[in-house]
Amino acid sequence: MIDIEKLKSLAFPPDSEEKDWYSNAHEAFDYMVSLLDQEVILYACLGNFYCYGKLGKTKQIDQDFPDELQLDLSPDNGWCIDFDGRKFSMLAPDDKGEEQLVFRRCFESVESESRIEVSQRLLQSLNLYWLDNRNAYCLLNNEGDIEPVIRQYEFQGTGQGSIVTISRAHLDRYMAITDTVLVTQFEFMRTSSSFSHWFSDVEPRQTTDMSAHIRKQGNASLFEGLIIVRPEVTKKQLIAQRKKSQYAKFKSWDWKNKKRTTISCGPGATVNYFTKNSDLPWEVTPAFFKPEVLAKYKADHENTTYNTERLGAVALGI
Asked: Is-above-0.85 flag for pTM?
């Protein structure tokens, strides 16, 4: 999980004008990269810390990066209806195979502050739901626990801004399935009150997946460019994992066939009430547990409720 206080220390200058802070904008880049093993920043606009990522087709990005890259890296893009005087047309922010994950929108003339919205395609594909008490879009993981996947932070007052992050594992899965990579534009600029202009030379820095320009002088520094985040899992690996999935089996009372039996939760092992000509048990079938199986859930008062009749998830209201 992102360290908000650490990020603020990188985004805003210290109370005293420490020369070292202003000349080391690369610290913000280093921190952004250090998160990539666990969490990826999709959008951050906070003080001197800015980055924004968008998905592009892997083949196209590899072909164009960095000099011929035509990816429109603006969070202010969005869907709109256009009329050219003769006909209407729908304009999309991602009509070239790219995919915008975060949208920055402002209700002009009504609200002065922008709002951040996350792509519904991404949310629904990953089966994510917003929970107020987590400030995040969450899912139920394989252990039955609520797992925050996309976190959204809003800051008000002097240090106002927004940050959106996503779990690396879930982003990797989404990128692998859609044959895309994340291209992130970043700009970390620090200038002291004595700064008037750049007199330092631009230092280019480039690797296979990064292209940056660096400036550094006593009272200011700049680190800006593009970086590609690639999935660390392949589509073939995801398919293999799914094929190896093991499904729990429960001792149950098969009230459809009126007998005690062991029933699997695997696909095709049960049917619903409307399926005809099948001897398979119903999907809604009583299952029995040893008391110790429920001990974990009884002890987790934050996420579960328990009484003699039912076990439910607090956040889901069941």
From this structure: no
Percent helix, strand and coil across the chain, each rounded to 5? 20, 35, 40
Look at residues 178, 219, 174 and name the one whose alpha carbon lies nearest to residue 195: 219
**Residue carrying the six token digits 């008391």:** 291
- Side chain identity at residue 207, one-letter code: T
**The two structure tokens encoding residue 177:** 């399935």
Query: Tens digit of pLDDT for each residue in 165-222?
Result: 999 999 999 999 999 999 999 999 999 888 888 888 899 999 999 999 999 998 899 9
Neighbouring residues of 4: CB distance < 8 A, sequence distance ≥ 6: 153
Q: Quote the CA–CA distance of 168 and 37 in Å, as a whole number.
A: 7
As a whole number of angstroms, the distance between CA 290 and CA 153 comes to 42
Cis bond before residue 66 (omega within 30° of 0): yes
Instruction: Provide the residue type at 208 as one letter.
Output: T
Q: How far apart are CA 165 and CA 151, in angstroms?
A: 5
pLDDT digits (tens, 9 = 90+) for 4-16: 999 999 999 988 7
